[in-house]
Design brief:
Oligomer: single chain
Number of strands: 0
Shape: globular
Number of helices: 5
Number of domains: 1
Strand content: under 5%
Helix content: over 70%
């Protein structure tokens, strides 16, 4: 019962990440706004930041469905990090074979999104 308020905060972070991806990809990008180079960079890479946070939270919360009786926080974090980071990095390489260049900044933002979510989990002291 003591975990529920902490998981609610994690749920809000998940929902904020979902909204971040939706707003950037379906509202901001299609308008082709004249932005500074910094905002252009963020517009291109922030979806990876938010997507990695979303996938991380899902893998962290549903870790118990994959591994029974091993519900230790550091194992959950490692599993969620690998699931999110490797999955999105693999997607970057799949896109390469679809004719798009590999964007290493997307991979970097994926790692930053995962690390940011780890910090949130550690600050919340979720067990």
């Amino acid at each position: 019962m003591t975990e529920k308020p902490k998981l609610k905060i994690l749920l809000f972070w998940f929902l904020f990440s979902v909204l971040g991806v939706i707003i950037i990809k379906s509202i901001i990008r299609p308008k082709h706004l004249q932005l500074s180079e910094s905002f252009e960079f963020l517009q291109g890479t922030l979806p990876n930041f938010f997507a990695s946070a979303m996938i991380f939270v899902l893998a962290f919360v549903y870790y118990g469905a994959f591994y029974r009786n091993k519900n230790v926080v550091h194992r959950r974090i490692i599993f969620a990090f690998l699931f999110s980071f490797l999955g999105l990095t693999l997607w970057e390489y799949v896109q390469f074979f679809m004719g798009y260049p590999i964007d290493y900044f997307d991979i970097l933002m994926t790692a930053i999104g995962n690390i940011f979510t780890i910090v949130i989990i550690l600050l919340l002291k979720i067990k």
